[in-house]
């Protein structure tokens, strides 16, 4: 498959000092890519650069072989959707109203939604298994349900690339698995390209085909979970002692944390 997104020697941040430094990678259509790394390594900053919330200080980001800074924002929003970490919404909109907001990039100024837009919204609700919540108010939902609504809104944009910033961070383990199972299903059945920031290394190992490990604003390692999640890489970046085993069900790497109190004194 061809390259969908290309990051070329990108420096970026919020002030003159760059958080990200000389970051380069490519992602092909249909990949499920996870971005991992310790706090402050630049994970969320990288997502903001890919959604054009931030502009690169140096380097460039190409989407479908076009510099994203040269693509009209509305056009970009028809193809790239973003799910933030915080899903709190301050107004009591219905679930359907929230999801229909995903159709805004496809509407002309002051244009009302058409039958096609409502059908797409219904499909997005069905894909995320929340069609039964259609008329409920967003502030009446659980955290897991609310996260599904925000993902349904993103899907209503009909993107070919979905970016998610720690979408499971506030959820219990049951809801975490439900959300990631949903994303994997969309990736496999609809060829939706997914780039997701995750803190949980074991979830990243299980669901992502490929991982980029960031450290101090640079790509420390890029490869399969087996390549990236070695105890050497994890200890070097996270500065903590771990044991990496094999998940007996998936054969993917499984990371076990080791307390310093239980670590042999001669361990180095």
Q: What do you see in this structure?
A:
With 268 residues, this protein is α/β, with parallel strands linked by helices. 31% of the residues lie in helices and 25% in strands. It contains 9 helices and 12 strands. It has helices spanning 43-50, 73-77, 95-100, 115-127, 143-156, 173-190, 201-207, 225-228, 231-238; strands at 3-12, 20-28, 32-36, 58-63, 66-67, 80-83, 161-165, 193-197, 210-215, 218-223, 242-246, 253-257. The strands form 3 sheets. Strands 6-7-8-3-9-10 form a 6-stranded mixed sheet, with helices on both faces. It has a 4-stranded antiparallel sheet with strand order 2-1-4-5, covered by helices on one side. The chain starts with a strand and ends in an 11-residue tail after the last strand. The relative contact order is 0.16. The model has no long low-confidence stretch (mean pLDDT 91).
